[in-house]
Amino acid sequence: MIFAVVEDSRNQAEVLRALLKSEGHQAEVFLDGNSCVEALRDRRFDFFIIDWSLPDIGGDEVLRAVRGKCGWEVPVIFCTGRTDEAAASDILRLGADDFIPKPIRYMEFMARIHVLLRRCQPRPAMQQVGSIEIDLGGRRIMLAGVDVDLTQREFELALILLRNVGRLLSRDELLSTVWALDGGGDTRTVDTHASRLRKRLGLAGESGLMLSSVYGQGYRLDTVQSG
Asked: Of 68, 144, 168, 208, which one's alpha carbon is 20 to 30 angstroms from that of 59?
């Protein structure tokens, strides 16, 4: 696997790279957040290890870029000197899969890597939610067996909603995830795309799913009973 290690301490980063290499993985080191975000434009990584405190941008900004470009399947671990409960909650709520407190205990570090690698085994290429089928390999979505023509951003928004059935997703969260690298757009962009998805994917109940706008908060996709 190819790891991205985003860590401003070169010595620390090289130790992590050596540990990963000893397990047969490749690792590329980024000493600041912007260089990693830039690399996402044309390179692929299978796993991210991100320092919370970076010299240029916050680790949370790197995480948003990773989720926006690579999706939610790619594992992300944070390394942080913050060990309080609030910090742990913040990191996980933002979309990280796990975190390692500093100073890093290397046996624990590798154990957590292995746990996430087991947990993140590839899912079946085809997934079904209601009467909607998701073809991850082909990046397409079908409704009742018929391909639905979606733009890239519509597909990514649909994917997040379909993977979070029953969960309220704020407009800001959707905007920062789907449009992370675009550098534009606002919450009206989310509303416009959500409205299109509601029509194209039958999210007013026809597909067995209902997309609801929660006033002042965001969107929630729920299953509905047929008949």
From this structure: 168
